[in-house]
C-alpha cells in the first residue's frame, strides 16, 4: 500500500476521478505562491503545473493564484477543463508527467479559493424555519406569511468569509434578556453553528437583467460546505427590524474545496412538494433538471457526531434562490457566494444548529467532556458531507471546520 | 472670465483648494484608461500625471486606475498627499506644469472610484426611524427597544453600488397588500430614495479585533453622498424576519467624489444629546473630536427641491457605527462602504425619503409635471450637499444623481 501511486486512489474513494473538486493551496517550500489544486484521493494536483507540463491551453485558467479566472470562464470551459483534468489523472500516457505534481494533502496549506464578491444567506429549510419560529414565537404561526412564497434571504459580510481550519474568535456584543432593563456587553454566551451548503457564482450577469430559473447552470460553478457561525444572543437583540448583523458578521467558514456541479449529476433530486402555488419566476415544476441535491451532511463537535442534516429536504432550491436574488435586476459577479440556509431535516438528529438541537438552551447535548447547550471555547466543529455519484460511488464534499478561541480580554 | 485659468476658481467656490475631493475619470481620448482625479472648481486634475510631472513619490498612490492604493495607504499618507496636492494647485512655480493637466469636468467621464468591498447600511436618524415606525406600526412604539442602545445596521449588496449618473432600472418583485390573499409580481409601484452620507474605509483591520471609537480617523478616509434606492412594496413583503433584501439590492448610487475627512474639520459638530446611557464601546462623551458632521443635503426630483435633510441631526455618528460594526471582531477591508441611513430632520421638508415625505403615499408631492407619491419612470433624482469649510467657505460634496428607467418587459 505504501508504494501505491497517488494516481490510484482506492476503489470507491469519494475523491476519485469522478469528483475532482477545485481548491487553492500553497506548499511549505513556496508559501507565497498560491496555486490552483484539484483533489484526487488524499493528494492535490498542481493543476497549473500540469497544464503547463502538458502544453494545455487551460494553463490560462489553471496556472493562476485563484479560481476566479476559471469561475468566470463559463460552462463550456468548465466542461472542457474537467474533461482535460479527468484525462490527465486517468490516461496512462500522462502518468509520468502528472504523478510528480501531486502533493500529499497534509503537506499543503489550503486557502480561500476565490475572492468572495457578495455573500447572501438564505433560510430555505422548512424544518429549520419552523423550529426557529416555534422557539422565538411560540404563540404565533411558526412560518412568516411570506415564507412559502419566496426564498427569504439577506446579505452577509463577505470580508469575513474564511476557509476551513481558520480559528473563530468568540464575538462580543450586546445582548439583552427580555426581563433585563438594559443590554449588557460581553462575549456571546450563545455561540452557534449553521450547517449549510454554499453555492459559488462563476459567470456574472448585468444589472437590470434577472437570471431565469433555467439559467442556473450557466452561472453557478459549484458548491462548498458552509458554516454560518451565529451568536444567538447578539442576534436576538439586534435583528428587529433590519435583520441579522453582528450576530453573523464575525465569521463564516467555507470548505477549501469547490465541487463543480458536473460532479453532482447523480445527486440531483426533486425538492419537496410545494404547498402553495409559486409565481412564474420561481415555478420549477416544468424544469428539466430536478432542483435539489441529495447531500448528506454530518456535523461533529470535538469529533462526536451531533447531527446529520439531509440537504435533499430543502424546500427552496439553489436555482430558485438565484432567480429570486436577481429578479429585481441585481447583478451577479464572479465569486458571489450564497448559502442555502441552515439544513435541518424532520428528525431531531437532523437539525443543523445548536439552537434547534438544544431548543435554545433548554436541553443539553452530551459530549465526552461534558454537556453543551452552545459552543464552549476550544470546541472544534467539523462538517463533512457526501453525495451519491456515478455507479454508486460517493462524491466527497470535503469538510469545513473551525475551532472557537476565547474572546479577547477587554 | 473666459480666459480665467482653471487654477483660479472663483473666490468662495465650494470646490476650491480647501476641498480637493478625489475621484476616478476617463477622457474621451482615452476611454480605456481610468485615472485618479482631484476636483478643483469645475475641472479635474489628472493627479497621477501631475505626480509624474513633478517627480513626486506619490505617483505610486496617484498614478493608478483607482483610489484603492491611496485608501489603503493610511492617515499619514493621506495628509501628506493632500499637502502635496494643495501645493501643486496653489504654488505659482507649479502653474505651468499643472495647468495643462486640468480637464473640464464636462469633458470627462467619472467612474466608481474604488472597489466596494462590503456595503453596510445603518438606520441612524431618530427622526427617520420614528417616522418609519409611525407609518408601519401606528399602534406600537415608534422606535424598537434596541434603537437607542445600538446603531442598527445591515449588509447590503456591494456589487450593485453604482456611480452617480448611472441609470436605475425599476426593479420588479413580489408585493402583497395586507388584504390580498397572495402576492403579485411586477415592477415596484413604490420606488423611493434614501438621502444618505456614505463613509469609505481606507485602512483594514484584522478579524477578531474591534476598532475603538477613537480610531475612526485611522481607518475612515472620507465620505460621499449616497442614495439607497428602495422599493418599499418589495421591502414590506420580504423583510420579516431577516431584513431588507431585494427591496434594496437592485442599486445604490454614490457620488463620484470622495471628500477626505481632512477637508471637513470645520464641519465637525456634536451629535444630539443621548437619551439613554451608552455601553462603553459606544460612549463618545469623552471623545476629543465631536462625532457629527454639519452637512446640508438638498434633494431634487426633476430639478425641483423636495427636501433639505440636515446631517447634523443624526443620532448615531460614523465613529459609533464603525465601532459597532467591528465590536464583534468583524474585520474591515479597504473599500468598505457604510451608509449613515436615511437623513431626516425634525421638519417635514427635512425628510430624506418619499416614504416619509408622502407618508407612504397618503400625500402627494407637487412637481411641475404632476403630483408624485413615489418615483415615476423618467424621474431624475439628484442630491447635492455642502458643509462649512475654513473661513466661511463652503465645502462642496458634489452630487449623486440617477434617472429611473422602466422595468424590462416580461
TrEMBL record, chains A, B:
Region (Disordered): 1-21
One GO term of the biological process aspect: homogentisate catabolic process
Binding annotation for Ca(2+): 121, 194, 196, 228
Binding site for Mg(2+): 228, 248, 252
GO molecular function: fumarylacetoacetase activity; metal ion binding
InterPro entries, alphabetized: Fumarylacetoacetase, Fumarylacetoacetase-like_C, Fumarylacetoacetase_C_sf, Fumarylacetoacetase_N, Fumarylacetoacetase_N_sf
Domain Fumarylacetoacetase N-terminal: 18-113
Root EC class: hydrolase
Pfam families registered for this protein in UniProt: FAA_hydrolase (PF01557), FAA_hydrolase_N (PF09298)
Cofactor(s) the protein requires to work: Ca(2+); Mg(2+)
Entry keywords, A to Z: Calcium, Hydrolase, Magnesium, Metal-binding, Phenylalanine catabolism, Tyrosine catabolism
Recorded superkingdom: Bacteria
Binding site for substrate: 123, 137, 235, 239, 342
EC code(s) of this entry: 3.7.1.2
Residue ranges the record marks as coiled coil: none
Residues covered by the Fumarylacetoacetase-like C-terminal domain: 120-400
Protein name (Swiss-Prot/TrEMBL): fumarylacetoacetase
Lineage: Bacteria, Bacillati, Actinomycetota, Actinomycetes, Kitasatosporales
Amino acid at each position: 500500500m505504501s508504494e501505491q501511486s497517488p494516481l490510484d486512489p482506492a476503489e470507491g474513494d469519494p475523491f476519485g476521478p469522478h469528483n475532482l473538486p477545485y481548491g487553492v493551496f500553497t506548499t511549505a517550500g513556496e508559501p507565497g505562491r498560491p496555486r490552483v489544486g484539484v483533489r484526487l484521493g488524499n493528494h492535490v494536483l498542481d493543476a497549473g503545473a500540469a497544464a503547463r507540463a502538458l502544453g494545455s491551453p487551460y494553463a490560462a485558467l489553471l496556472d493562476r493564484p485563484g479560481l476566479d479566472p476559471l469561475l468566470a470562464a463559463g460552462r463550456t470551459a468548465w466542461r472542457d477543463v474537467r474533461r482535460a483534468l479527468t484525462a490527465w489523472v486517468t490516461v496512462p500516457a500522462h502518468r509520468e508527467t502528472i504523478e510528480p505534481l501531486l502533493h500529499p494533502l497534509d503537506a499543503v496549506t489550503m486557502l480561500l479559493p476565490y475572492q468572495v464578491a457578495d455573500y447572501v444567506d438564505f433560510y430555505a429549510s422548512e424544518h429549520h424555519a419552523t423550529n426557529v419560529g416555534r422557539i422565538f414565537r411560540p404563540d404565533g404561526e411558526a412560518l412568516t406569511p411570506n415564507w412559502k412564497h419566496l426564498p427569504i434571504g439577506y446579505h452577509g459580510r463577505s470580508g469575513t468569509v474564511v476557509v476551513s481550519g481558520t480559528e473563530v474568535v468568540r464575538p462580543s456584543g450586546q445582548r439583552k434578556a427580555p426581563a433585563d432593563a438594559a443590554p449588557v456587553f460581553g462575549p456571546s454566551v450563545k455561540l452557534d453553528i449553521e450547517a449549510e451548503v454554499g453555492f459559488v457564482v462563476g459567470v456574472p450577469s448585468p444589472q437590470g437583467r434577472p437570471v431565469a430559473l433555467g439559467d442556473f447552470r450557466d452561472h453557478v460553478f459549484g458548491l462548498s460546505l458552509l458554516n454560518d457561525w451565529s451568536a444567538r444572543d447578539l442576534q436576538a437583540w439586534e435583528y428587529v427590524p433590519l435583520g441579522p448583523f453582528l450576530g453573523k458578521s464575525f465569521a463564516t467558514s467555507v470548505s477549501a474545496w469547490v465541487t463543480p456541479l458536473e460532479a453532482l449529476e447523480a445527486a440531483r433530486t426533486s425538492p419537496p412538494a410545494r404547498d402553495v402555488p409559486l409565481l412564474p419566476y420561481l415555478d420549477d415544476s416544468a424544469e428539466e433538471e430536478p432542483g435539489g441535491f441529495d447531500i448528506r451532511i454530518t456535523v461533529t463537535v470535538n469529533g462526536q457526531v451531533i447531527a446529520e442534516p439531509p440537504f435533499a429536504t430543502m424546500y427552496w432550491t439553489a436555482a430558485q434562490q438565484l432567480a429570486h436574488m436577481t429578479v429585481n435586476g441585481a447583478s451577479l459577479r464572479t465569486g458571489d457566494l450564497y448559502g442555502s440556509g441552515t439544513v435541518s431535516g424532520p428528525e431531531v438528529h437532523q437539525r443543523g444548529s445548536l439552537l434547534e438541537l438544544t431548543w435554545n438552551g433548554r436541553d443539553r447535548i452530551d459530549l465526552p467532556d461534558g454537556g453543551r447547550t452552545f459552543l464552549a471555547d476550544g470546541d472544534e466543529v467539523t462538517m463533512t458531507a457526501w453525495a451519491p455519484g456515478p455507479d454508486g460511488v460517493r462524491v466527497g464534499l470535503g469538510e469545513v471546520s473551525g475551532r472557537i478561541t476565547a474572546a479577547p480580554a477587554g
